[in-house]
């Protein structure tokens, strides 16, 4: 049962944990449909490599879940949801902008994501450009 919903901004670590859950789900699905593979790394560990199909599955999962439910499986476990300013429902355009912003945030050595930990509204760059907030 999800935690009780309030309008408090969701913090950095709880969002990271939710994202890890979602990333595992996407990786499992991608591995079954040929969207990625577990490969040995040079240091003796294992790497999961996503290809274009895996990236598409990730995009469809996140953007689709955000549009349809305002949340993802990982976020829902912790009672989080994404809203627009004033608590309005997330729009499809904002969901797409948020996803593109998330990719950019990851590409810039995660600075845009880590920003959540230091921002007074707990917004990452992807939230700021899309006008979204993650609340609990």
What can you see in these coordinates?
The strands form two sheets. Strands 1-2 form a two-stranded antiparallel ribbon. Strands 3-4 form a two-stranded antiparallel sheet. It is globular, with a radius of gyration of 15 Å. α2 packs across α4. The protein has one domain. The chain is built from six helices and four strands. The chain has 136 residues and is an alpha+beta fold. A hairpin with a 5-residue loop joins β1 and β2. Helix content is 51%, strand content 13%.
Topology:
Layout (H helix, E strand, L loop, with lengths): L11 H21 L3 E5 L5 E5 L1 H18 L3 H5 L3 E4 L7 H16 L3 H4 L10 H6 L1 E4 L1
Antiparallel strand pairs: 1-2, 3-4
Strand order of the largest sheet: 1-2
| Strand residue percentage | 5-15%
What multimeric state do the chains show?
Answer: single chain
Class from secondary-structure proportions: alpha+beta
**Mean of residue pLDDT?**
89
- The total beta strand count reads 4
Give the helices and strands as they follow along the chain: HEEHHEHHHE
Whole-Å distance between the termini? 14 Å
Overall geometric form: globular
Note the main sheet: 2 strands, antiparallel
State the share of residues found in helices, binned by percent: 40-55%
Radius of gyration: 15 Å
Extract low-pLDDT stretches: 1-5
Alpha plus pi helix count = 6
Supply the number of structural domains. 1
